[in-house]
Write a structure and sequence with these properties.
Blueprint lengths: L5 H8 L3 H8 L7 H14 L5 H7 L5 E6 L5 H16 L3 E6 L4 H8 L9 E4 L6 H5 L7 E4 L9 E3 L2 H14 L5 E4 L9 H16 L8 E2 L6 H13 L6 E4 L2 H13 L9 E5 L13 E5 L1 H20 L8 H5 L3 E3 L2 E4 L2 H4 L6
Parallel strand pairs: 1-2, 1-3, 3-4, 4-5, 5-11, 6-7, 6-8, 8-9, 9-10
Antiparallel strand pairs: 10-12
Helix pairs in contact: 1-2, 1-3, 2-3, 5-12, 8-9, 10-11
């Protein structure tokens, strides 16, 4: 028996071959009813997508790159899992690349690693500059996650300033007035840490609390030892914070350890809140309050936007797609929520 072809699916479903292709590629511009009918026809016929042939006809490899600073940072590991899952739904393979926050490595990713074996890139940059993004002739489509280097670049993230403001407001609502920020930065340049610091300062101003630049505790990197070291430095210098806003959960977990070793009770004496909602924070003692980005949504939106860009680059955008959907640079914001646990709420409160 001959292998069913896409035209056989179209005939059985009563739609065009282009519509079947749009359903297979999971384009959003297809009605739920049409999508259901096509998928039922695919199942009935036992149709299988010839991925190699499809990518070859489209002039693609079917590979996208996820480029992150460090693979052993839990946030990026959890995000990678969601990106891989979302890419698989679209018959894409994910190449994962670690840059170590090195500019040369990030530039190599931005230009497609000097070859044509990736169709697109999802990149979390730390060392790139806005100028690096402006001259990318011949480079593959790229979607930034995390840092926004300049307006006009495709970008997916939470509203970091708003999230930090909400976290700080929560601490203030607990009666805390001496709030220090581990990883805080006051630089005018764009970036996640800078945005979160702005949110912190906005919450202080709204509450009528004076901002003290010494409340920002810089770190060499955003890992647990750096969080612990920041606490040691602050306490050794005579600071007596009653709350810590840590700009990621790794810093917060390190801070919890350092506070414990010095006999400082959490949250009775110092409340601690982090960012990212990594799994370890749900099992720490005390459990960690945190800002939880919707990592699944970050992955879904980033892969979907990159798919649009790759389709646009190859001239295979769905016929019913709006030009604005794929041509205008997108700065897309996904949801976040404040998860309150023992490090701010005390024993017995879990999220």
């Amino acid at each position: 028996m001959a292998r069913p072809r896409i035209k056989d699916v179209a005939r059985l479903a009563g739609v065009s071959e282009k519509t079947v292709s749009n359903v297979i590629n999971d384009y959003t511009h297809v009605s739920d009813r049409t999508r259901r009918v096509v998928r039922e026809a695919i199942e009935e016929l036992g149709y299988k997508v010839n991925l190699a042939g499809r990518h070859l006809r489209q002039g693609r490899t079917g590979i996208i790159a996820l480029v992150v600073p460090e693979l052993d940072v839990p946030y990026f590991a959890e995000l990678a899992r969601h990106v891989i899952r979302e890419a698989e739904r679209r018959s894409l393979t994910v190449l994962i690349h670690q840059t170590g926050a090195d500019r040369d490595h990030e530039l190599a990713a931005l230009t497609g690693f000097g070859s044509s074996f990736v169709d697109g890139v999802i990149l979390s940059p730390l060392a790139l500059t806005p100028d690096d993004l402006r001259d990318r002739a011949g480079a593959p489509p790229t979607v930034l996650i995390g840092e926004l280097l300049e307006e006009g670049a495709d970008h997916v993230a939470i509203d970091n300033e708003k999230a930090a403001r909400e976290a700080t407001e929560h601490l203030i609502g607990l009666g805390r007035r001496s709030i220090m920020v581990i990883g805080g930065r006051s630089d005018p340049r764009p970036g996640t840490a800078e945005a979160r610091t702005r949110g912190y300062r906005a919450a202080l101003a709204e509450a009528g609390i004076a901002y003290d630049p010494a409340a920002l505790l810089p770190v060499a990197s955003f890992r647990m030892p750096d969080g612990a070291d920041a606490v040691v430095r602050a306490l050794s210098a005579g600071s007596r914070p009653d709350a810590l806003l840590c700009l990621n959960d790794q810093l917060a977990l390190g801070a919890l350890r350092a506070l414990h070793e010095r006999g400082v009770r959490v949250p009775e004496e110092v409340a601690v809140i982090g960012f990212d909602d990594v799994e370890a924070g749900r099992f720490s003692v005390p459990t960690l309050s945190t800002v939880a980005p919707d990592k699944a949504a970050v992955a879904q939106v980033a892969v979907e936007l990159l798919q649009h860009r790759m389709d646009e680059a190859s001239g295979s955008t769905p016929t019913d797609a709006s030009p604005a959907d794929v041509r205008s640079p997108q700065d897309l914001v996904v949801a976040h929520r404040l998860v309150l646990r023992e490090s701010t709420e005390g024993v017995g409160r879990r999220g």
